[in-house]
Design a protein that fits this description.
mainly alpha; flat; 2 domains; 5 strands; Arc Repressor Mutant, subunit A; two-stranded parallel sheet; Rossmann fold
């Protein structure tokens, strides 16, 4: 398979991979020095297996020269629409997208679909306790002095120890924990953005929007429309 790819790719006008197919392109040497994407759950492995490849886990698809790559399997349809647009123009591509009942350009990247990144648990019990404190009440007072006091450390020492143990600064851990709490609220409740933001410690609807745009690339109201679970129908006794 790899020999066929190496032999055929130079003669092709375009080469595209879908989802984990990026591993074949990388193993065949097509992506050395290039930027590619793959499914968010496999992106780290692809980067580790092929350090000469620049792996970007967020885009739905990427074009680097004549080489194209897409995220998950369904993202292969997004990539195909881009190829149709390149060959036949936006009007034809838009018509195809309408027949498929999908966006011509899907809003946001694949980060919005990814499961929360697992955060390492600290070895020190005091730091683990702080992690649990934040996760149990995302909307609480988790400013740095309060967290340091909970760990019975100075702010400077706490910041250094927490970052070394967890792999990220306390402020980033708090923001990501609040973001995940807000995601669940938007998926499971019909509460307003202001109520969700307050409950999760993000202050206001505007702050919630900024956090969602920064981390997920979509506004929270669009995220809710896409991912909110349908309310269960009541059944009569």
């Amino acid at each position: 398979m790899l020999e066929f790819i190496r032999r055929t790719a130079p003669r092709c006008r375009r080469v595209a991979t879908v989802c984990s197919g990026a591993f074949l392109g990388a193993a065949a040497g097509l992506f050395d020095g290039r930027r590619v994407t793959t499914h968010w759950a496999r992106a780290r492995q692809l980067a580790e297996d092929h350090p000469g490849v620049t792996v970007d886990a967020d885009p739905i698809y990427i074009r680097d020269g004549k080489y194209w790559s897409s995220a998950g399997v369904s993202a292969g349809i997004d990539l195909s629409l881009a190829l149709v647009q390149e060959d036949l123009g936006v009007d034809v591509a838009q018509t195809v997208a309408r027949w498929l009942v999908m966006f011509l350009h899907r809003p946001g990247g694949q980060t919005q679909f990814a499961s929360p990144v697992w955060v390492p648990r600290a070895e020190r019990s005091t730091i683990r306790a702080v992690q649990s404190l934040v996760e149990a009440a995302p909307g609480g007072d988790h400013r740095l002095p309060a967290l340091a006091a909970a760990a019975a450390m100075s702010v400077r020492h706490f910041t250094r120890v927490f970052t070394a143990e967890v792999g990220e600064a306390p402020s980033r851990f708090v923001e990501r924990t609040r973001l995940e709490a807000a995601r669940r609220e938007l998926e499971e409740t019909a509460d307003t953005l202001d109520v969700v933001a307050t409950r999760c410690g993000l202050g206001s609807a505007e702050s919630l929007r900024r956090v969602f745009q920064r981390h997920l690339g979509v506004p929270p109201d669009a995220y809710r429309r896409r991912f909110r679970a349908a309310p269960r129908e009541r059944t009569s006794a």
